[in-house]
DNA sequence: CTGGACCCTCCCCCCGGGGGAGGGTCGATG
DNA sequence: CATCGACCCTCCCCCGGGGGGAGGGTCCAG
């Protein structure tokens, strides 16, 4: 039996942290003296403590650590951990994108975004639409695109596009729609004909990873406000060059259009 | 002038977050109506908001973001940001090490650490020693080693070693000492002759990156407790294969010795 | 038996926000 | 001119994963 201090020295976890893990049901001491409240740990608990330590270094929440520890089957446990490793990799990607974007932002005098005003006529397209959470939008998007491509096939007359409610960005949940223009929009599964209304669009093209699009969005916003206009209606995007066209995010090109109207 | 809601839409920062940045002195609205308290932002503030957004994505603390924004000189600002990017890279390394270590830990039935009991005689060596913070120990170590190598040169009769007070791990601050064994320890700058006392050591060898050493430490602890012994005195390490010998962390070998005595 | 090291619980603090209450302000409409 | 809904304000409490410290009990070696 080891006192909490001795156990702390063996595991490099602070005494405080060990007490917290006890309270959280993560690492119960082998014995708790019910008179003095002293915690006594067994040597066998050292490896468990080390697993916890590692998982915490990876910012795995305590609740998830608990779930992992309570999964006895090594295979299932491995899958749980693999999920977190995947999350970490996604985070690394995000970090890299943020670094790249930051470097561009900090360049003195960034080139202002080139914006064009364009009157867009109403168009009927093949579309998949749903109300989604911001976190799920990437997965939803992938599925919707696959279904669209299967339904429209080679009959597409233009690049893939999408529209997104403001609420998706502001409340984290809103309507998203992806479409392919085609002469006779089919009806298959979630794919429906949808008529995009006519609109006057302030249009610009974002080059690069989609994670850095908000810089372009901001430039567009600056232009819109600077030209005494305001925005009404969901944002429209068209994916001129995307992941399926080029593996290099730097080559991606996304056309972004905001429906605007003149004010003042 | 943009209301906080409009500004929020342009920057993809929530209204709440903008108010917080105002309170924190990070992003003052261009105008605050002193009757109604309404915040009004200028279009020019959009780029600033985006820089903040990027920095926050990199988990730069608000105080540091403020410091960066208040540094007008682009060069100095670039250096500040570079510091954070360096921190990020270090963190990535740490993450990778944790992932690797975790994989090993989760392998069923990890090989127990091979421990040897060894009586170490007292030895006088050339050493550099200081009380340091855990966060600074890496930088201090590098400088001390450089000074040692310069003073001892080719006269070293064994690998580089170090000793570390328990307090360094427990309180985050304690005495660290690095040494090179040599027949006639010189006295130069911070380099002094120091006599390491005789001790009985429980010795094992850690293979791999030093960040994963606590697993080996834990194994050593298990062995010590399991053999009815206890630890007294600073931990000793000897760097048999280190970064200067091999670029591959997997090849590094560190001998870890705990001064022990028999109990019970 | 006494001192110091060790252990206990409890409360408040940190960061970077989110949720929601309760109330004031704005501008388009009737 | 009133009214209504959208917008904005402040204030307080919540989260996770701990750290700092107060105030008090326990253990063991000298």
TrEMBL record, chains A, B:
Recorded hits in CDD domains, A to Z, give: HTH_BmrR (cd01107)
Q: Answer whether the UniProt record assigns the keyword DNA-binding to this protein.
A: yes
Task: Tell me which UniProt keywords the record has, alphabetically.
Answer: DNA-binding
The keyword DNA-binding is assigned to this record: yes
Ranges for domain HTH merR-type: 1-71
Q: Give the matching Gene3D superfamilies.
A: 1.10.1660.10, Regulatory factor, effector binding domain
- SUPFAM superfamilies linked to this entry: Probable bacterial effector-binding domain, Putative DNA-binding domain
| Organism superkingdom | Bacteria
Q: Which GO terms describe its molecular function?
A: DNA binding; DNA-binding transcription factor activity
Q: What is this protein called?
A: DNA-binding transcriptional regulator, MerR family
Q: Which organism is it from?
A: Klenkia taihuensis
């Amino acid at each position: 039996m080891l006192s909490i201090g001795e156990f702390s020295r063996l595991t490099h976890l602070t005494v405080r942290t060990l007490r917290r893990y006890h309270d959280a049901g993560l690492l119960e001491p082998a014995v708790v003296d019910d008179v003095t409240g002293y915690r006594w740990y067994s040597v066998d608990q050292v490896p468990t403590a080390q697993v916890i330590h590692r998982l915490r270094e990876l910012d795995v929440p305590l609740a998830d650590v608990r779930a992992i520890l309570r999964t006895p089957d090594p295979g299932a446990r491995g899958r749980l951990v693999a999920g977190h490793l995947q999350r970490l990799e996604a985070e690394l990607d995000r970090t890299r994108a943020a670094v790249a974007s930051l470097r561009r932002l900090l360049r003195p005098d960034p080139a202002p975004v080139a914006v064009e005003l364009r009157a867009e006529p109403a168009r009927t397209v093949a579309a998949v639409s749903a109300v989604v959470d911001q976190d799920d939008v990437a997965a939803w998007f992938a599925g919707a695109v696959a279904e669209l491509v299967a339904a429209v096939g080679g009959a597409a007359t233009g690049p893939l596009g999408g529209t997104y409610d403001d609420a998706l960005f502001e409340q984290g949940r809103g309507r998203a729609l992806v479409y392919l223009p085609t002469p006779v929009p089919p009806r298959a599964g979630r794919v429906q004909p949808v008529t995009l209304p006519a609109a006057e669009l302030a249009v610009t093209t974002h080059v690069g990873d989609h994670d850095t699009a908000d810089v372009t969005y901001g430039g567009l916003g600056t232009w819109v406000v600077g030209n005494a206009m305001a925005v009404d209606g969901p944002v429209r995007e068209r994916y001129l060059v995307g992941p399926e066209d080029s593996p290099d995010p730097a080559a991606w090109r996304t056309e972004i259009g905001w429906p605007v109207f003149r004010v003042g």
